[in-house]
Every structure is written in C-alpha cells, then in structure tokens.
Design brief:
Elements (H helix, E strand, L loop, with lengths): L1 H18 L5 H8 L2 H31 L1
Length: about 70
C-alpha cells in the first residue's frame, strides 16, 4: 500500500512539472548576473548547516566520553 501511494505521488508531481511549461528563468538569471547571488546565498546557507551539524557532533562526542 505504501509503495502504491509513493508511485501515485510521484506521478502527480510529474504532471505538475509538465504543467509549468517552459520558462526562461535560466536566461533571466544569467542576463542580470543574479545567478551569482543565488549561488552565494546557497553556499552560505549550506555551510552554516554543515557547521551547525559539525558542532552538534562534537558536543555529542564530548557527552559520550563522560
């Protein structure tokens, strides 16, 4: 039953992706050089997440040693 629901969900998501049609967002970001801003923000967010997870891992290791 769970497998059937997963397949059904994937099919419905693929229909919504087709409904969006073609957009020129890639050209828009490249033409305005905003793609670099988007990439920089993503790098900052991901690095913060990894630093947070690393600090939690260190704290857990210290607690396990005690």
């Amino acid at each position: 039953m769970k497998k059937f629901l997963n397949i059904l969900l994937l099919i419905l998501l693929s229909f919504s992706a087709f409904a969006q049609g073609e957009t020129d967002t890639n050209d828009f970001f490249k033409s305005n050089l905003k793609i670099y801003v988007v990439v920089a923000v993503l790098v900052i967010i991901l690095s913060c997440i990894f630093l947070f997870l690393f600090s939690i891992e260190r704290r857990l290791n210290k607690l396990e040693e005690k």
